[in-house]
Amino acid sequence: MVRPLVALLLGSLAARAAADGLSITNVVATPRDGTATTIGFDVAWDHSWRGGTVHDAAWVFFKVRKEAASPGQPLRLLADTVVNPSGFRQGGGTVLDCVVPDGDDGFVGVFLRRRQDGIGRVAAERVEVLTEPLAAGAAATVKAFGVEMVHVAEGPFDLGVVSGPELNRFHAFSGTGTPPFTVTGPGPIPTGRQPGRLWATGIVPEDGGAIPASFPNGYRGFYAMKFAITQGQYADFLSTLSEAEASRRYHPDGHGTWISRSGEPPNRVYAPRGGFPNTWFRPQAADRDHRCPWLSWADSAAFAAWAGLRPMTELEYEKACRGPAQPRLSDNGISFWGLEDCNAGQMYERPISVVTPRGLSFKGTHGRGTTKLPADWPEDARASILRGDVLHMRAYTSGGHQRISGRLLAVDSQADRKPHPLAMWRGVRTDPAGDDALKPLVARFDPAIPWKLPRRTTRATIDGRLDDWGDPLVVIGEFRDVFPLTHTPVSRRYPTPRLPESWGGPADLGARIHVARDDGDLCVAVEVTDDRHCNTQSGPAIGDGDALQIGIATREGHRTFGVAATADGVRVHQWQPDDTKLLEVLDCAVVRDDAKGATRYELRLPLAPLGIASDELFGFNVLVSEDDDGAGGQEWIQLAPGMVRGAAGGSGQNYMRFDPRP
After folding, report:
1. Within a domain: 207
2. How many domains would you assign to the chain?
3. Is 86 within 8 Å of 95 (Cβ atoms)?
4. Domain assignment of residue 251, yes or no
5. How far apart are CA 508 and CA 530, in angstroms?
6. For the whole model, what pTM was predicted?
């Protein structure tokens, strides 16, 4: 979230901005031999995370006023490399990387992110960056602004869903159905009613055309605003503009309800009022952190250009919601990556569409720090499409018509005249070239490609020690493995203002999974890292405590069972199907090692009661549930989507596939 900080050129300190989110304080601008300016500041924000390429960041940029009444102008950074340029340093606190995008539309800001993996508050002291020199003798004032961002990693992803009520959803043309379309690279995407091309059930792209390679199709990584534009951010934006420009971007009868204007030109003061956009939105800790309604597309685009960001495309929107996960029926989960309110049913967003020539001409150019839109940007909402709101759309659609894949035409074609009160907006910025830390995020396995089931050379001893196993077949314990990822119960994948105490990393909950065939048996061994073991449950409720749950999918159906070390000893329960043939013959052991913070599960499962034929593929999944205090399940981790914690149900279509044949 934006926080305005001011420093006189000679080094006066700015007043601290009120916030529970991103804050930039103690800003000092110091001349450096007439060749550069060093800007130093402290930066902090809550609810931060990093797990490799999956992370959040702060996008920090600077404006300078040459005179008190003059509009703010962008201050370009000086960087000799993209990551941690010379002269960029910090004095203490959370160690950060400084990433300065370069190129024709670069040097307008710096990404600050954790250098090491971690979760929780970021607090870095005396961060220093280099900018272009300020005019000698000018009574200049430097302001620093920041926006919290979330990284959406490079990699393939799906558009659409195989069936459902979602209106105008994308799909791969097949002539007989609407299978999802997979974006496999950054190149052009053929569109039309020919097999394998991208098509839609309505609001269709050009038949026989193509989305050009220059259009941001979502494959390449990008940073997206963690929150939609807030009242505080928009007030800061207005406060740096000229009187004429600010008047053009301020609608007293629209978002003026949430942003006040006081004073006389050229000394106008804009400030957030802090009211809720509507009753669906929850209270925020600070007035400035409430979302800002009534922003037109052009208002929002001007903000993005001023901040050095750009509009999102509708393909990027779908990836920002679903990530690399496969589409599912009733696909209404919140953001895979941690974007707040993305597809949360509280607002809709207006990304650039692929169905108009003006939209397709968008090349992803970033703003250069002023309100002037780059030449490839649309001027208004006519090149956009509505995505995301599943609640308020009910005035003219059903709740299922949107979800992740639903698409609706813009309500208002002239964005500067009738902005919709529920229309929110978030900007993005493409991953800078030269940042080698931004690795693609791809699926661990393709459910369509089976793995050879390993075979043991010695008979496994089911004792829970796991000392007769080698390296694990799979290790889980990344952000992408954490569930639930739904609105209710609240997602525990990332820390948020609503739930600051979320998953604490692989030491809090992680798993090393071994699977092998041992003659006529399937042997499974799982070492779970868990700082505290607790299971006070019994019967079918054992899945609500610390437990191991296994899913097996065969041609006979879906089998789900679990084992747990409870207060009454080791207990086993099968949720489906309703038979006892497996429970009568399985062998299992569970050993808790408090000193190492580990729980070890080991099972021997005869193939025949599992329904596994010796010459047929089967699906396999593991779910590890968590409970630290006996109050019931919190988060859980799982190898693949499709299981239901502590209950029957689910689907094996996304399970890991094994071939049991030699």
Report:
1. no
2. 2
3. no
4. no
5. 5
6. 0.91
